[in-house]
């Protein structure tokens, strides 16, 4: 099964997360800059009893397509460890199933498309 | 079932859509700037009988992961109402199933990862 | 079945890929700028025997939601042909299933939401 792991992490954890993914040997990844908020709505803690405006914070989104559930777990664990501070705002990881993968240069599909087969 | 709702809306509807999502009480969201076009290819109306170049227009992409089909519906309705003008270019909403969710700070997974449980 | 086709291609192939998608008649698309790397980790070839840092390269991400497996194939083929150079870094294509689609202006859902029905 091919799976995409998506993670939203702190901007200053970009290098650490990238290094952690490199260390486990992922075969590719994509990053982009996004803005977001979680349950604190961008504040330092949850503000109760009044509706506050959402403050968007800059985050880095990682996208990594992997080739098995085993790699899904490995990838999540690597991100989790590298992105952790213990303070609100450390981020979220989501995964979903990929139907089809294709490498444009070689026309390889599926498992082969996301492996280092050469 | 965990579901990601993705919406592409007008730039000048960013604040309205964010406020609508805040009002229904979503527990997190991510936004990014994208470029896109729909069936009019970036023009004011559909140009027939000749093939026109696609004109990319700036749009805002919202991503909201929710914890049930009920929340999927609520989220779609909130976006739809807030993003509507009635003119071409109002945008599109797509949803898909999420396999796994994880909160980095607490290591909570699944439903708990996207709820305000504290 | 509704399917999202996601492709990461070279920056200088943006116009070619867009024109190819226009030529087959897709009804909408979204693009964004991302950074990424594949199995060469951003280098010209695979560096063996030592762990090298990942060098992020700018890429263009295309997202196209289509309404059938037939269109999935057509869309992949169009991108593949337009994005190809034969050198490492040509890019990857991934697809996944979409649960629900909605056009904000008309409230059309599913198949109708992503068709030119007018
Ligand atoms: N439900 C969600 N849907 C989409 N994106 C989300 C969601 N929750 C969080 N995010 C993204 O993850 C980023 C980090 O979220 P954050 O770590 O603050 O989550 P949280 O649930 O508030 O956890 P914590 O309590 O540890 O702060 C957000 O800025 C946003 O980009
Ligand atoms: N099929 C699609 N795949 C990917 N993104 C799409 C698709 N259709 C629309 N979008 C995104 O949604 C944005 C808004 O699209 P738009 O509202 O113009 O859709 P439309 O089908 O042309 O509807 P309308 O007729 O109301 O203009 C686009 O700029 C693009 O970013
Ligand atoms: N497994 C992956 N997960 C997420 N994104 C990826 C993955 N593999 C590649 N990408 C994205 O696609 C872009 C292009 O990748 P690239 O074409 O170099 O892949 P490759 O497997 O190294 O193929 P080639 O050997 O032809 O270079 C990367 O910069 C990255 O954005
Ligand atoms: Mg938070
Ligand atoms: Mg349109
Ligand atoms: Mg490569």
TrEMBL record, chains A, B, C:
Listed name of the protein: Nitrogen regulatory protein P-II
Question: Top-down, what is the taxonomic lineage of the species of origin?
Answer: Bacteria, Bacillati, Bacillota, Clostridia, Lachnospirales
**GO molecular-function annotation terms?**
ATP binding; enzyme regulator activity
Can you quote a single GO CC term? cytosol
Q: Which organism is it from?
A: Anaerobutyricum hallii DSM 3353
A GO biological-process term = regulation of nitrogen utilization
Highest taxon listed in the record's lineage: Bacteria
Q: Mind telling me which InterPro entries this protein's record contains?
A: N-reg_PII, N-reg_PII-like_a/b, N-reg_PII/ATP_PRibTrfase_C
């Amino acid at each position: 099964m091919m799976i995409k792991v998506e993670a939203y992490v702190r901007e200053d954890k970009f290098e650490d997360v990238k290094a952690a993914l490199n260390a486990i040997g992922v075969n590719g990844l994509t990053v982009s800059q996004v803005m977001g908020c979680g349950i604190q709505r961008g504040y330092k803690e949850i503000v109760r009893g009044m509706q506050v405006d959402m403050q968007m914070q800059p985050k880095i989104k990682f996208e990594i397509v992997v080739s098995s559930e085993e790699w899904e777990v490995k990838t999540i664990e690597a991100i989790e460890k590298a992105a952790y501070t213990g303070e609100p705002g450390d981020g979220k990881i989501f995964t979903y199933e990929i139907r089809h993968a294709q490498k444009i240069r070689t026309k390889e599909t599926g498992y082969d498309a996301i492996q280092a087969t050469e």
